[in-house]
């Protein structure tokens, strides 16, 4: 009896912290040179972070339905997935593109920075990193192919 009560009390004590961890999902993490770029989803609040290990130099927070973050799925050699975060005139696009051995295409992922339609920077992840798009239920709008990372 005492063991059962202790087990229930332990579960109740862990409950809030376990569910809080589960609420934030990591959608993307990749190393680009000496920096790391990551995207997390906390129930429709998307966060883009960029900086060297242990330090965030830049972050963008956007509600899924805000229009400040857009997503795209398209097919080249394989499926490509991307999220674009808008910060004024500058866009930060994280992407992953599956490879296709039949046509000699390798899987690639990375970060593209654009101002308007002009590419300012294009850095590949090392190693490759998968991007997981938020669920459709969160309402992230579809992006224009003008901002295609590839």
Walkthrough of the structure:
A 6-stranded mixed beta sheet has the order 9-8-7-6-5-10, with no helix packed on it. The chain has a 4-stranded antiparallel beta sheet with strand order 1-2-3-4. It has one helix spanning 2-23, and strands spanning 24-32, 35-42, 45-51, 58-63, 69-75, 79-87, 90-97, 108-115, 118-124, 141-142. It is mainly β. 15% of the residues lie in helices and 47% in strands. Residues 1-21 have low confidence and may be disordered. The longest helix is centred in the first third of the chain and has 22 residues, at 2-23. The protein has one domain.
Large-scale geometry? globular
- Sheet-strand content, in percent, reads over 45%
Count every beta strand, where a strand is a DSSP E run of 2 or more residues. 10
Determine the fraction of residues in helical runs and give it as a percent range: 10-25%
Number of domains: 1
**Largest sheet geometry:** 6 strands, mixed
What labels would you give this structure?
globular; four-stranded antiparallel β-sheet; 10 strands; six-stranded mixed β-sheet; single chain; 150 residues
Question: How do the helices and strands line up, and which of them pair or pack?
Answer:
Blueprint: H1 2-23, E1 24-32, E2 35-42, E3 45-51, E4 58-63, E5 69-75, E6 79-87, E7 90-97, E8 108-115, E9 118-124, E10 141-142
Parallel strand pairs: 5-10
Antiparallel strand pairs: 1-2, 2-3, 3-4, 5-6, 6-7, 7-8, 8-9
What's this entry about, in short?
With 150 residues, this protein is mainly beta.
């Amino acid at each position: 009896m005492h063991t059962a009560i202790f087990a229930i009390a332990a579960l109740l004590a862990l409950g809030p912290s376990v569910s809080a961890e589960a609420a934030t999902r990591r959608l993307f993490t990749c190393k680009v040179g000496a920096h790391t770029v990551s995207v997390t989803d906390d129930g429709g609040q998307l966060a883009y972070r960029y900086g060297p290990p242990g330090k965030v130099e830049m972050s963008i927070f956007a509600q899924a339905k805000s229009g400040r973050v857009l997503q795209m799925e398209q097919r080249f050699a394989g499926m490509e997935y991307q999220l674009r975060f808008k910060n004024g005139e500058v866009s930060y696009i994280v992407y992953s593109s599956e490879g296709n051995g039949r046509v000699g295409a390798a899987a690639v992922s990375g970060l593209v920075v654009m101002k308007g339609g002009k590419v300012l920077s294009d850095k590949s992840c090392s190693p490759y990193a998968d991007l997981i798009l938020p669920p459709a239920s969160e309402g992230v709008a579809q992006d224009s192919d003008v901002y295609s990372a590839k």
